[in-house]
């Protein structure tokens, strides 16, 4: 699926706009849609079978953050049990209470019991993650899928010579996890901070992911959804062309262009401008390589455009512990007087008002996109072991799309 592009990089000198709150409050809503455009519509209504005795869980790493918290709520509403891992480096524990309150209200209205919601206050790079995963797994004796080498260990010496012990060794002990899928949000995301502290970003976003994947592999957990970003398109995002997933690949790929011509893409991207952007590209490459080496993985990278909005109750939203850099929290700091003005970067783009055009997506749509991706993989509907999808609206948005009386764009576009 393709999505509209941002229309340019920020010009070096910000123009300063005072924020007026006189616009219509109705216009400020960013209503979410209710259908998955990417995956089959029926998949989101087809959750993993949580009634089947040993209670599967979905593990959401970074699940108390902005996008994670909305995703956890939607997962619960779809009937999934959820295990959240979060170190609270950019979120607050009270988000957990808010998710619980909203989910229990939802299930109370339906007269149904709420699925389980577990939380571990942990850095996902911590050695304690092994104990957490152990707690959700058991051992099981299974038949080996095939004998692809001579089974020496199945030979036994008897009085009449050496014989095959056909009872032995066609079985093995394996770990079976109740965690049937993982959604990974745990990353640092400030473009500006990543330039000042690249090692901090590579350590969490890249090294953390590598070790985590190794751990998941040990526990046989191979249905994985990764939070990527439209930033992986690099310079292409400023060319004013629709961004197709095939324009950024990690292995050579052939695809049909709009006019039917066949195009071959080589791996790589031009013009990544920050360690944050590079970290997302690197993570995607690592995931794509892993999928080639072991096609039993089902990995979906979701490339987000600009998530905005909040849960309709207003109880969940974007409430970062660190200095905000995304558009809406920055606007909130101006509205509350913490910041005097809103800096808008870019005035000379080829757009009606000269400001950048961006593709905004409602955070609840984004949350549902993750569930659709997980469920599609679990149902075997995603054929390739690694796939990337854009999650955007495909509709370029100026400020009017957000309902404010100004045209916003902020410096830090994650
Ligand atoms: N918000 C955006 O505009 C945007 C756009 C594109 C991609 N993304 C990606 O989406 C993901 C989620 O973004 P968000 O806006 O919800 O960010 P967020 O900071 O609100 O959420 C991330 C959560 O992960 C937690 N976390 C970070 N490192 C951790 C670690 N080592 N162990 C455990 N928890 C950890 C944080 O405490 C936070 O709760 C990120 O990977 C981000 O790069 C975000």
UniProtKB/TrEMBL annotation:
Any Pfam family hit: Epimerase
Gene3D superfamilies named in the record: NAD(P)-binding Rossmann-like Domain, UDP-galactose 4-epimerase, domain 1
Protein name: NAD(P)-binding protein
Polar residues composition bias: residue spans: 1-31
Molecular-function GO terms, alphabetical: UDP-glucose 4-epimerase activity
Assigned GO CC terms: cytosol
Sequence ranges assigned to domain NAD-dependent epimerase/dehydratase in this UniProt record: 58-392
PANTHER family per UniProt: UDP-GLUCOSE 4-EPIMERASE (PTHR43725), UDP-GLUCOSE 4-EPIMERASE (EUROFUNG) (PTHR43725:SF3)
Disordered: annotated span: 1-33
Organism, scientific name: Sporormia fimetaria CBS 119925
A GO BP entry: monosaccharide metabolic process
